[in-house]
Amino acid sequence: MTYEPRDLNLTDPVKGYLHFLLYTEAGRGVASASLNAELDIEAPQTVTPHFQEWLSRLERCEPDALHCTLVAPAQIPSLFQPCVTEHRNSPAPIDGPGCTCRRAFYDPEFGLPVVGEHFDHAGPDGTDRWAYTTYAPLELRPDDTFSSFITGRGLFWARTAKGLLSILPQQHGLGYNLGYSGGGPHALAAYLTQIARNEGGPTPAGTRYEDAHPAIVAWTQSTAAERGTNELSLSDLRSMMAS
């Protein structure tokens, strides 16, 4: 089917994330989202204040079918195993008190599934860290207005006029990036351009590369954009396009 932004509302927290469009390859044991981009958030990225703000609103839940699409088939049993810190007889331990469990969460604002992956190695060079996998929304909620764009450590966020922090909407196959002349910066510039043209109003992900404004492309491709934490307000984006 052809995706039109009003055909499916994939970010309604009341209807939840059962409104994902999925595809399956039964012979290969593959099930995944055909519209929503999957995001892998590594442990070093979790130290930013914006990630911590987002993490703090996640709620623990029982794993369901969509959580299973965020892990490899062989890893699905680990979604149902407790952490060693929660149950000493967990089947997930490594090297004594170490652990390789997973936890299921959901984002109550968007109904999106999140899987946390724990790696606790108790050796002499031990480490205890969490990484996360989730889906990006395809659009902000229907009553939200985009206020600002925030990036730091390779993560991309939108702040709404109501103050809500969201993962920046992103469509599968159109990953975002900064600091070079490839497709990632161009996809990001195209989406930010469309948000500015829509005055922060409803803007589904998936804007065509050729619709990106040259000034915003120049910013996303610059080395300055990838350093530290950057924030651009809606007015900043519009000023870029007016210059």
Task: Please name the defining characteristics of this protein.
single chain; 243 residues; 5-stranded antiparallel beta sheet; 4-stranded antiparallel beta sheet; 11 strands; 19% helix; 25% strand
User: In which range does the helix fraction lie?
Assistant: 10-25%
State mean pLDDT (0 to 100 scale).
82
* Poorly predicted runs of 5 or more residues: 5-10, 15-19
Straight-line N-to-C gap? 39 Å
Helix-strand makeup class: alpha+beta
Task: Please describe the topology of this protein.
Elements: E1 22-25, E2 30-33, E3 38-41, H1 49-57, E4 59-60, H2 65-68, E5 102-107, E6 112-121, E7 127-135, E8 146-152, E9 155-160, E10 165-167, H3 183-197, H4 214-221, E11 229-233, H5 234-242
Helix pairs in contact: 3-4, 3-5
Fold and architecture overview:
Helix content is 19%, strand content 25%. It contains 5 helices and 11 strands. The chain has helices at residues 49-57, 65-68, 183-197, 214-221, 234-242; strands spanning 22-25, 30-33, 38-41, 59-60, 102-107, 112-121, 127-135, 146-152, 155-160, 165-167, 229-233. The strands form 3 sheets. The chain has a 5-stranded antiparallel sheet, with no helix packed on it. A 4-stranded antiparallel sheet has the order 10-9-8-11. The longest helix has 15 residues, at 183-197. The radius of gyration is 19 Å and the shape is globular.
